[in-house]
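FW: tagging you since you asked about this chain on Friday. Here's the raw sequence from the shared folder, copied in full. Didn't touch anything.
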Amino acid sequence: MNESHQNRPVLVAGGSGFVGRRLVAALVEQGADVRVMTRQPDQQRGPGSAVFGDVSKPDSLPAALEGSGAAYYLVHSLDAEDFEKSDARAAAAFSAAAAAAGVTQIIYLGGLGDDRDDLSAHLRSRREVEGLLGADGVPVTVLRAGIIVGHEGISWEITRQLVEHLPAMVAPRWVSTRTQPIAVDDVVRYLVGVLGNPEAIGRVFEIGGPDVLEYREMLQRVAAIQNRPLPIVPVPLLTPGLSSLWLALVTDVDTRTGRNLIDSMANEVVVRDGSITDVVPFELTGYDDAVRHALEERKGLR
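HL: got it, structure written out here
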């Protein structure tokens, strides 16, 4: 984090969410003046100053962004019926308000996936948001991630609850898809590291942990850590629609959100360009350790 950003507030849109609240704490620890943009500022707990703002209400954004040197955009609408249009409108409004406020950097947490593939609606939307956030001239730094492992993360909750609730698993073809999960603490380190970093301004980075795994391997490694056997039998005819209904039966993840995430599981999400490690170098957390940390945090041990 460079000195210019230390002298101006940093806005975190989505600062009360899974990644956002960890990011806010890390930024405050480094001495940043952090504004947490939320629809319910009176309910905001923890570090940072709560300010009212709602990306679905463009008129609320100028006041929230006023005076900010940089802004994080950690917002999505996966639980909305028409999330693609909702996310596009929100990103366009945020871009315009950020430019008018004189913001010099927007940092966005997007999704991994090869643009040459037939990307899911979720991943296509993430790409569209990347472009819309920079449409009014504010330089955007994008960090594209796959599954983020940490307590209360949606993708992690799906993994944990499947392992804990099923003695065996009849699974669709996506269990053979490769992914590159990353610990939430490592995501936060990258997000902090690109703030005000001249090598990161206006660039797109791919971030992932040190392990490339099939979803099947991820599930079985969680089961092994918890000393639970988990036989997995792939069933090719189990469609995304049936998968999401099945998911709703065995987890408490919102059905619409689960469906949108399951659609993305057909896409291989691995890091093809590791240039972020030159810009923000540190030792990454392995998948098994990330899982143990998430389980410990859930039990209140961290």
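FW: Residues 13 and 37 are 5 Å apart (CA to CA).
HL: agreed, and Residues 83-101 form the longest helix (19 residues).
FW: great, closing this out.
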